Amino acid sequence: MVETMPHQLMGYDRAITMFSPDGRLLQVEYAKKTVKQGSTAIGLQASDGVVLVTDKRIVDTLIVPKSIEKVFQIDEHIGATASGILSDARVLIERSQLKAQQHRVAYGTPIDALSIVKDICNLKQVCTQSGGLRPFGVSILVAAVDKAGPRIFETNPTGIFFQYKATSIGEAENDVDQVLHKEYKDDLDIDGCIKLALRALYMNLRDFELHRIDAAYIDTTHKRFTKVPASRIEKLFAEVKSKTKPAVKNKGKKQEETDEGSDEDTT
User: Fold this and answer.
1) Section 141-148 average pLDDT
2) Given this model, what pLDDT does residue 86 score?
3) Which is deepest, 14, 25, 43, 266, by most CB within 10 Å?
4) Residue 21 is assigned to a structural domain of this protein
5) From CA 62, how far away is CA 143, in angstroms rounded?
């Protein structure tokens, strides 16, 4: 009887264009695992806008936290955050920024979020079927308030995208999603969504530190991307902390050397 060999040993993960016998692209699945190693990011649709909240993983105490950017502005009315490989995210975000500006110059109107999302996903999909390339090892959350109203989109390394009311990506994705499923409500305002995101991170990140949290929102009134000041985050977290049980600190396990300061590391 012939012994069954893992697909990796049979070489089905050597090229992005090669399907395994059970119809899987193993290199794409590896890219999705890279996202799972990145720091957690959350996107929520509020009753009066959209919110992005993210953890900036910092393992070197000499790094200046403010120098690490995890929430990006694509246009006045569109923002994004990412989890996975920082350099991959930067390339896609800069491509989106350029596309948004070209649209304003050509048509004199702001671009809609779906066009940005489709452009990102089209490029990601090409990298899953072209020899000599590798998939983008990053998932991106795109938040916008456009003519269709407040919207949150999630893109993954396969080139697939979905619109969500609330979603998360990164290392604590499964645990955070459980909190969002239980506690998210359609009538939450921007502050309520920020507090829910902080609560989810505080409950599920064993190394949670407030100075590592970055957040931004776009409200439906002004439709303008706005970073949340640290003082406001501290105030909202104070309301959350007294009613929330923190994650158990994992003191025995050494944290992996994957910080935000290197382009080769996951974010």
Assistant:
1) 96
2) 86
3) 43
4) no
5) 31
